[in-house]
Please model this.
Amino acid sequence: MIRLKKTGSIFLFISVVVLFACKSKNSNTKSAAEPGGAETATLAASTNVIGSYAGNFGDNMITLLITKVTGDSLEGRSIVGGNDRPFKGVMAAADGVITVIAKEPGGEVHDGIFKFSFDNKTPGVLTGTWDPYQPTNELGSKEYTLQSRAFVYRTEVGSYPQASQRLLKEEDVYNFNTEELEQMRNEIFARHGYCFQKKYLRQLFENKEWYIPNTTEVKNMLTDVERKNITLIKRFEKYAAEYGDEFGR
Model:
């Protein structure tokens, strides 16, 4: 009688252990397939979504900077049209594709919602749409395909690289007209990834292969050489504007 009781207790204990193990296995499998589960975290890590992505965005160029990924959460900034706006989003993974819905704060008229995806079959490429919170005739939905492009400050690029390489003398700028001097000066900012508010300046640099909008504030990035050259160029811009016709420029 005592032997049968022990046998029954052992059988009951084994049954409970097996049942608990099965439930744990099923629970883990489910969470891995859901947004925020192991699949999303693993795929995000393998895809390495953190980075800078740049490309055409309607009439402008945009840079999406993804700066932080935690589980299925994502944070970053959008830089376009002279604006630098933060965004936060959530990720979901399925069949080797990460889908992201990211929202800008909504405090600016040009804020909206990004929806984009990463596919492991095309690494370094981000495709998606953007919809404004407040659509107008001038501001509507946009589609985009962005490439992974990291900003790098380079002094050798542009039509007037000397403005970032050495101190300019008056004879270096004396014979340039106003438009040339303006481009020379603004190239200094463009080399630092400055996203211009003025559309004609954005159009001037956004077609250059070396240019990537990366910030809307460059004052603390300028070198001493560049600061002094900007002062000199501005002085001659004013001079060229006032006396250009007299000297046939």
Summary: Residues 2-33 form the longest helix (32 residues). The first strand starts at residue 51 and ends at 57. The radius of gyration is 28 Å. DSSP finds seven helices and eight strands in the chain.
